[in-house]
Amino acid sequence: MHVVSRAPFDTATRQFPNQAAALDDVYRTLKRENYTSPDEMKKRFASLDRMKYREKWWVIDVGG
Predict the structure, then answer these.
(1) Which of 5, 19, 33, 59 minimizes the number of CB atoms within 10 Å of its CB?
(2) Distance separating alpha carbons of residues 49 and 11, to the nearest angstrom
(3) Is the pLDDT of residue 55 over 90?
């Protein structure tokens, strides 16, 4: 798994400026680390959840 683009993180930062630091931290962590499975990623991001309407898409709750 890897981060394809920073653009969605930049868009989210503009939309949710109070979460800008958290979004940047998540982006940098995803860019730096390599996960072989969603289970492995869930160890780092406990809020990881499969997106209901898109197969093989996952969501991380950054704002808490």
Answers:
(1) 5
(2) 21
(3) no
